[in-house]
Amino acid sequence: METIISPSILAADFTVLGKQIKEIEKSDAKYLHIDVMDGLFVPSISFGMPVIASIRKHTDLFFDVHLMIVEPIRYIETFADIGADLLTFHLEAAEGRVEETIDKIHALGCKAGLSIKPGTPVSELEPYVQKLDMILIMTVEPGFGGQKYIPSSTEKIRETRDLLERYGLDTAVEVDGGITAENVCVVKEAGANVIVAGSAVFKGDIAANVRALAEG
Q: Least CB-packed of 18, 32, 132, 159 within 10 Å?
């Protein structure tokens, strides 16, 4: 399965964001990871619709939008309208409306992803796996950049890939949090094929960093 690098603009320098996105376009990265935080589901507040709408006008990169917000179904239509290609929301934030949210994402022409926090068992994904385009395993506690990879995540990635294989699915498995050129081989071996990286991409030479993650 092809490895896809999804640089997280949470770690970008926003004074030169446009320039850095152009550098990503010239690299081997195919996705742009956009973290939306509401200060409720996670403690931090990041950026929202105006930033996404603005950068959508200037790039054709695949927008991998990660919603760390409560009741995500309220905003699915807006994010689809402003250019999201894939919308991933948290199982823990959907309050009994997980399947409804997935269906709404698909009805609006976007791909649907479902994410779980480090403390949520992989088994809770099972009722939804046949409807998903991607599963995102958080490998740190969501809400802050620059955290270290949680080692127990490796087994969760493996469990997720095993779950998908039991259903005969080759659904994408994304990982987010603490991924570096030094440990990316661990998550790939466990079954992840979409790699989110922030600091590991934006600190230094972006194209070289993306290449190191892709080849690691």
A: 18
- Catalytic choice (13, 35, 81, 133): 35
CA distance 82 to 203: 28
Question: Known catalytic residue: 133?
Answer: no
Which of left, alpha, beta for 134 (phi over 0: left; psi -120 to 50: alpha)?
Answer: beta
What does the alpha-carbon distance between residue 121 and residue 140 come to, in Å, rounded to a whole number?
14
Closest residue by Cα to residue 72 from 51, 93, 53, 96:
93
Reported as half-sphere exposure (CB side, CA atoms, 13 A), residue 9 has a value of: 29
Do residues 65 and 134 touch, judged by C-beta distance below 8 A? no
Looking at the chain, which runs of residues are DSSP E strands?
4-7, 31-37, 62-68, 86-90, 111-116, 134-138, 172-176, 194-197
Catalytic hit among 28, 81, 176, 205: 176
Residue 187 and residue 192: Cα distance in Å, rounded?
Answer: 6
If we measure between CA atoms, which residue out of 158, 207, 176 comes closest to residue 67? Answer: 176
pTM of the complete model beyond 0.85 = yes
pLDDT tens digit sequence for 129-172: 999 999 999 999 987 667 899 999 999 999 999 999 999 999 99
Integer angstrom CA distances of residue 128 from 18, 20, 27, 171, 173: 36, 36, 34, 12, 14
By three-state DSSP, how is residue 47 classified? coil
d(CA 69, CA 59): 25
